[in-house]
Amino acid sequence: MASHDTNPSPHSAAGGFDEAAFGDPQLEAQLTQHFAIEADATGVDLSALAARVASVSAEELPSRVYRPRVRRFAPLQAAALIAVGLVALRLLGPSPAPATLDSDGLVVSPIALPATVLADVDLLTRDIVVRERAISNLSGVADFECELEALFPEAEFRCDS
Amino acid sequence: MPEALDESDFRRLVASARWGDDHAWRTLVEHWTPRLFAFLHSRCRDPELSEELVQDVFVKVAQRLVDYDERGRFSSWIMLIAINRLRDEMRRRTRHARPVEHETLGALAGSTPSTAPDAPGAQESRRALDDALRSLSEPERELLHLRHAVGLSFSDISELLGEPRGTLLARHHRVLGKLRAFLAPHDPNNPQEPNASSDEEGGDA
């Protein structure tokens, strides 16, 4: 409490006012002691309260709330975005096989990503994995690679399971 | 009681806590818990509610840490959260018309100190000071609580309440004068009649 602060007002000279000139050290000390005794008289164990509060509130810290979510989703999101981007490029760019028309309308032939594109995805995702591993030493990278392998079987990810 | 910390310590601890430093967060909590508890208890006189509010304040601080603007004072920021939380709770209680025996709780609190027995007359002088504090207006009491229960500097209080520091210094000076006048008849070392006129002069700067 205030009584434990050697000087609760270190800015006495700031703002052009000398706090000492406005004070009454004896009465102020009496007030500080009075409030301290009042709080003490409640019988509340403040150390135990602090420990409990620290533990409960720590769960709400930004690092706890956001980091796991970022860790879990960032690599997958990045890989998905890259894949979508590449597919979009493939669709918008010059097509090696022209779309065919039938009586029901426009039918686009099934998308077959060329080996070079898959190799790019592989390299980029591997890069993400390596970075993620370096940053957070994350366990579960193997699972992540397995997920990618399921998505892109041609890409030869190193799925150990 | 943890060691005294200043604003630069708070800034450093907040930055570390943001990045998941549990020790930094614990240090902040340990520093502020007794101060917040003393302040909240001095305002509501309810130990259980004060404990609950202390926890709420830290949960809110943790949730808002990501948005905390380091240009401001941490002391003012955390106290503002505490004051707002207390006001919300008091409003809620008033709406639900839950009578709280503040006087009784205060008397009980004063009569059961967990510290060493009082010196002769100490309890009487504490009771006199309690009466004197009750005679003050709400803003006057709040100023004393912020200054002497929490230990905030006048600069912190100025930022917190949005009032000029000079105004607060003058008000504090005047309030001390009022207390002296109130306490003078109870002071065995001071047989003179109370004369607070000099302290009553000079309004807010």
Topology, element by element:
The complex is a heterodimer of chains A (161) and B (205).
Chain A: H1 19-22, H2 25-41, H3 46-58, H4 62-92, E1 100-102, E2 105-107, H5 115-136, H6 141-151
Antiparallel strand pairs in A: 1-2
Chain B: H1 7-18, H2 22-44, H3 47-64, H4 74-95, H5 102-111, H6 122-134, H7 138-150, H8 154-161, H9 165-183, H10 197-200
Helix pairs in contact in B: 1-2, 2-3, 2-4, 2-7, 3-4, 4-8, 6-9
User: What is the CA-based Rg of chain B, rounded?
Assistant: 19 Å
**CATH architecture descriptor name of the largest domain in chain B:** Orthogonal Bundle
**Structural class of the secondary elements of chain B?**
mainly alpha
Q: Largest interface here, residues on each chain?
A: A-B, 53 and 63 residues
Structure description:
The complex is a heterodimer of chains A (161) and B (205). With 161 residues, chain A is mostly helical. Chain A folds into 2 domains: 36 residues; 82 residues, no CATH class. Chain A is built from 6 helices and 2 strands. The N terminus of chain A is likely disordered. Chain B has 205 residues and is an all-alpha fold. Chain B has 2 domains: 112 residues, Rna Polymerase Sigma Factor, Chain: A (Orthogonal Bundle); 85 residues, Arc Repressor Mutant, subunit A, CATH 1.10.10.10. Chain B is globular.
Features:
heterodimer; A: mainly alpha; 2 domains; B: Rna Polymerase Sigma Factor, Chain: A; Arc Repressor Mutant, subunit A; globular
